C-alpha cells in the first residue's frame, strides 16, 4: 500500500497544529507526528482526498494563523517503516505506562509496558488524545471488567485495558490497516483473547460493556454516542477523546441529553477527554 504525507508549517504552532490535525483527522488522516514548526500527517493513498485537504488549508478563519503552508508527498509502502521509525520515540505516560517500538530498549521499572509497531495506525501514545485516555485507564480499576475500544487504531488502549485485567476486551476500527495492526500488536504483547473487529458502531449489538472507550473525532462521537450509551452497562464508564477543548460543550450536551453523568475531564494542551458515567 502507498501513503500520502502532508508536511505542514504553521505560525503560531499552538493552537493551530491541534486545530489542523483535528480537521485532517475528520477527512481521513490517521497518523500524525509533531514538529517544531508544525506537524506531519499521514493517510493511505486510497483514502487521500485532495479536494478535502485543500479545503482544510484554505478555509477562512477569523482570526487565522499568521503563516500557513503545506507540502504533499507520496510515500511507497516499502519506505513507510523508515518514515515512522524516524518519527517514533518511546513515551512514558503518568510515570506508569511506557509505550515503545520493538527497536526501543525495555523499561522494567514501569507498571505497564506496551510494544507498538504503529505502521499507518493512529495511537502511539504521543498524541494528546491517546495520552489522556491512557491516564484515565491507569486510574481506573479494570480487573474483570468488559471493555470496548472504538476506533482502536494501533490497539494501544485495548492492550492497556487487557494488561490491567479487563476481560473480555473488544477492539473495533473501520480502517483495515488499523484492524490488522491491532491484531499484530495484541500478539506482540502476548494477548491472545482480545476480540478485534473490522467495522464501526454498526457492529454493536446486544453485548454490553462495563467500559467504552472512543478516541475518534468530534463528528463521529456525536453520531455514535447514542450507540455507545446503548451498549454501556448501568454504572459503566464512557471515556471520550479526540476533540479540542472548544468542542467540549457540544459533546457534553449530547452526553447529558442521553442521561449520562459527568465523571470529570482531563486537558492536555488544547485537547480534552471526558469521563461519563451511566446511572
Commentary on this structure:
The chain has eight helices and 14 strands. The protein has a seven-stranded mixed β-sheet with strand order 10-9-8-11-12-14-13, sandwiched between helices. A four-stranded antiparallel β-sheet has the order 2-3-1-4, covered by helices on one side. Strand 2 (31-35) and strand 3 (38-44) form a beta hairpin. The model has no long low-confidence stretch (mean pLDDT 89). The termini are far apart. The protein folds into two domains: 3-84, ACT domain (Alpha-Beta Plaits, 2-Layer Sandwich); 127-277, Vaccinia Virus protein VP39 (Rossmann fold). The chain has helices at 13-26, 50-58, 80-87, 128-139, 156-163, 176-188, 218-230, 248-257, and strands at residues 3-11, 31-35, 38-44, 67-75, 91-93, 97-100, 112-115, 147-150, 169-173, 195-198, 209-215, 232-244, 261-268, 271-277. 31% of the residues lie in helices and 32% in strands. Helix 7 runs parallel beside helix 8. It is of the alpha/beta class.
Amino acid at each position: 500500500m502507498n501513503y500520502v504525507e502532508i508536511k505542514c508549517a504553521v505560525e503560531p504552532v499552538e493552537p493551530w497544529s491541534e486545530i489542523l490535525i483535528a480537521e485532517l483527522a475528520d477527512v481521513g488522516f490517521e497518523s500524525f507526528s509533531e514538529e517544531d514548526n508544525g506537524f506531519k500527517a499521514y493517510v493511505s493513498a486510497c483514502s487521500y482526498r485532495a479536494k478535502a485537504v485543500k479545503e482544510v488549508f484554505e478555509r477562512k478563519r477569523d482570526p487565522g494563523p499568521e503563516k500557513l503552508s503545506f507540502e504533499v508527498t507520496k510515500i511507497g509502502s516499502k519506505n513507510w517503516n523508515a518514515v515512522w521509525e524516524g518519527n517514533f520515540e518511546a513515551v512514558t505516560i503518568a510515570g506508569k505506562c511506557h509505550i515503545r517500538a520493538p527497536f526501543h530498549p525495555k523499561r522494567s521499572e514501569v507498571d505497564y509496558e506496551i510494544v507498538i509497531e504503529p505502521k499507518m495506525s493512529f495511537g502511539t501514545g504521543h498524541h494528546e488524545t491517546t495520552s489522556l485516555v491512557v491516564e484515565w485507564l491507569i486510574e481506573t480499576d479494570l480487573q474483570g471488567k468488559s471493555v470496548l475500544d472504538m476506533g482502536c487504531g494501533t490497539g494501544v488502549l485495548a492492550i492497556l485495558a487487557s494488561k490491567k485485567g479487563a476481560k473480555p476486551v473488544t477492539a473495533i476500527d473501520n480502517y483495515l490497516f488499523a484492524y490488522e495492526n491491532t491484531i499484530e500488536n495484541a500478539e506482540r504483547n502476548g494477548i491472545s483473547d482480545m476480540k478485534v473487529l473490522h467495522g464501526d458502531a454498526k457492529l454493536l449489538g446486544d453485548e454490553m460493556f462495563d467500559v467504552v472507550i472512543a478516541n475518534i473525532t468530534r463528528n463521529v462521537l456525536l453520531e455514535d454516542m447514542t450507540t455507545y450509551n446503548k451498549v454501556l452497562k448501568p454504572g459503566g464508564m464512557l471515556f471520550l477523546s479526540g476533540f479540542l477543548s472548544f468542542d467540549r460543550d457540544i459533546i457534553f450536551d449530547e452526553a447529558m441529553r442521553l442521561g449520562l453523568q459527568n465523571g470529570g475531564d482531563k486537558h492536555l494542551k488544547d485537547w480534552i477527554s471526558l469521563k461519563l458515567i451511566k446511572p
